[in-house]
Amino acid sequence: MALEHAILVSLLEQPGSGYELARRFERSIGRFWTATHQQIYRVLKRMESDGLVVAEEIGQDGRPDKRSFSATGPGKDVLAEWLRAPVQPEAVRHELAVKIRGAAFTDDAGRAALIGEVERYRAEHEALLLTYINGEKRDFLDLGGLDAGQQLQHVVLRGGIAYERMLLDWLDDVLRTLRAL
């Protein structure tokens, strides 16, 4: 997937400035597709010159005008073509998993340090799960009244919740195993 596709999806959900897009990436999209502010602005500029997005100048009192981007017809066509293309399973790079395998080649102090790291990592993911669950409670109370876009956002969120629960279960297993060594 290219960053262009993630930007098009976000802009079709809601037009916005480069700053607003970057904030959306930090809050939601960034959990499965990361991008820096600089990357987003650079890609938006290219997409605008390619005719995939259009910018509207919006005046702001006491601040510089902002540019609000939205997807164009050709941008929607590019997204539709991409949506029809097959998806290949992606390779997962998981530094912690490599460290866990490496624990076989360290001493008790090294394993103790790794236990501390796994506990820290677990706490971060437990907090993220709570964030997802709170977001679900906040944004998806009335499941019967969701439009197609909201239903798809919800199914992605449910996937994130399921992933975090699975990860926490695995980390608990890792901690039990490390502590038993």
UniProtKB/TrEMBL annotation:
It holds the Pfam family Vir_act_alpha_C. GO terms for molecular function: DNA binding. Coiled coil: none annotated. Residues 7-81 form the Transcription regulator PadR N-terminal domain. Residues 92-178 form the Transcription regulator PadR C-terminal domain. Keywords: DNA-binding. The keyword Coiled coil does not apply. The keyword Glycoprotein does not apply. It comes from the Bacteria. This is DNA-binding PadR family transcriptional regulator. It comes from Actinoplanes italicus.
